[in-house]
Design brief:
Elements lengths: L6 H6 L17 E5 L16 E6 L12 E6 L2 E7 L5 H6 L4 E7 L9 H11 L2 E2 L2 E2 L1 E3 L6 H15 L13
Parallel strand pairs: 1-2
Antiparallel strand pairs: 2-8, 3-4, 4-5, 6-7
Length: about 170
């Protein structure tokens, strides 16, 4: 999720794994949410079949969330990445920003909930306002309902990891 994103720039600088764009990665689902997309920002047709792209609807005249976070799922864990900068050349090349990255293992039966987990899940639940989703699809093959379901699956999946050793706090 990011406020502003330049996918082709991120790809050219190898900030995004190349396998996300390959023909072989059609089974790797990608959920990409941003504040707004222009046509050049959207994933190109040749690799977009596994990409679910959406925007977050503004709920007031002052704008919308400004989250920049990634969840990278692996067989034995999840990598949580939270950053302060937008994913555009001017931020990446010319600004000093902060980045939190930590890997978390799968939960065991006796793993307690942590404050990090509770805050993360509470924040992600805010993507529903007055009972309706704030997500809007910009992918031709995916409607708003399907995009929201994909997002809900990501949130549900995040519940299966142990955040007890988190080295940061969400505020």
């Amino acid at each position: 999720m990011g406020m502003q994103s330049d996918l082709e720039y991120l790809r050219s600088r190898q900030y995004l794994p190349e396998y996300l764009f390959s023909q072989q990665s059609r089974e790797v689902p990608v959920l990409w949410l941003a504040h707004d997309f222009t046509p050049q920002d959207r994933p190109r047709d040749q690799y977009s079949k596994n990409w679910n792209v959406g925007v977050v609807k503004k709920v007031d005249k002052w704008g919308t969330h400004h989250t920049k976070m990634w969840f990278l799922f692996y067989p034995n864990g999840v990598r949580v990445c939270i950053q302060t900068g937008n994913l555009v050349p001017s931020n990446i090349d010319f600004m000093a920003d902060a980045l939190f990255v930590q890997d978390f293992p799968r939960k065991s039966r006796d793993s307690p909930e942590s404050e990090f987990e509770l805050q993360l899940l509470a924040y992600l639940s805010s993507y529903k306002h007055d009972g309706s989703s704030l997500l809007r699809s910009v992918t031709e093959d995916v409607d708003d309902r399907q995009l929201t379901q994909h997002f809900d699956r990501v949130v549900e999946r995040l519940r299966h990891y142990d955040y007890a050793d988190a080295q940061g706090e969400l505020v």
